[in-house]
Every structure is written in structure tokens, then in C-alpha cells.
């Protein structure tokens, strides 16, 4: 019964709340080196925050790009790097800009 109540409450959460939850879980999983789980949760954060001006989607994209780069999957790394660039007007833009530039160098993007 308790888990059913939790599911009902989950459905009433906003997309932004879900995006934050997925983003924070992804960060934890990444730090625990549970890479496949972190990728899953970063993707869920992106899905739930597409139309919002929060940092969850652009940072999730950057972290996914880093993960794929470490896995030597440059195509996916570039895809998420490029996807992160479509977001604008969100919190923490300075730290995002630094991380974005660092990734640009690692991906050897000339633009």
C-alpha cells in the first residue's frame, strides 16, 4: 500500500521536480561508478526538463558527453555536447560555459 501511495504522489510531481530527481540520482550513480544507471537517469532528466529554464538538461547533456567520451564513443559524446548547446537561459551558466569549453577541447571541435 505504501509503494502504491508513493506512485500516486510521483504522478503528481511536475516535470521540473522529476528532472531534478533524475539529475541528482544520476550524479550519485556516476560518483558510485554505476555508469549505465547514471546514463539512464541523465537521459530521464533531459526528457523531463526539455521546456524549462533549469540547468538539469544542459548539465545532463554535458555529463553524458563526458561519459561517452571516456567510453571512446565520440559520436554519442558529440551528440550530447551539441544537444547541450540548444539550451539557453538557465541557472549556473558560468560553470556550464567552462565545462562546455573543456569538452569542446577534448572533442577537438574547431568552431
Topology:
Elements: H1 2-12, H2 15-31, H3 35-48, H4 56-70, H5 74-84, H6 93-106
Helix pairs in contact: 2-3, 3-4, 4-5, 4-6
Account of the 3D structure:
It is a single chain. This protein has about 110 residues and is mainly α. It has six helices and no strands. Helix 2 (about 15-30) packs antiparallel against helix 3 (about 35-50).
Summarize the structure.
With 111 residues, the chain is mainly alpha-helical.
The biggest sheet amounts to: none
Indicate the mean pLDDT. Answer: 86
Count of distinct strands: 0
What is the helix fraction of residues, given as a range? Answer: over 70%
**Separate helix tally:** 6
- The rough form would be described as globular
Q: What is Rg?
A: 15 Å
Low-confidence stretches: none
Listing every helix as H and every strand as E from the N terminus to the C terminus, the arrangement reads HHHHHH
* Cα separation of the termini: 55 Å
Fraction in beta strands:
under 5%
What would you call the structural class? mainly alpha
Amino acid at each position: 500500500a505504501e509503494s502504491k501511495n508513493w506512485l500516486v504522489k510521483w504522478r503528481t510531481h511536475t516535470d521540473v521536480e522529476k528532472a531534478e530527481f533524475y539529475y541528482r540520482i544520476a550524479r550519485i550513480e556516476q560518483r558510485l561508478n554505476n555508469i549505465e544507471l547514471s546514463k539512464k537517469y541523465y537521459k530521464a532528466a533531459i526528457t523531463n526538463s526539455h521546456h524549462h529554464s533549469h540547468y538539469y538538461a544542459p548539465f545532463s547533456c554535458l555529463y553524458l558527453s563526458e561519459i561517452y567520451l571516456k567510453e571512446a564513443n565520440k559520436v554519442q559524446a558529440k551528440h550530447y555536447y551539441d544537444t547541450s548547446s540548444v539550451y539557453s537561459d538557465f541557472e549556473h551558466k558560468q560553470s556550464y560555459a567552462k565545462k562546455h569549453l573543456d569538452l569542446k577541447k577534448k572533442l577537438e571541435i574547431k568552431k
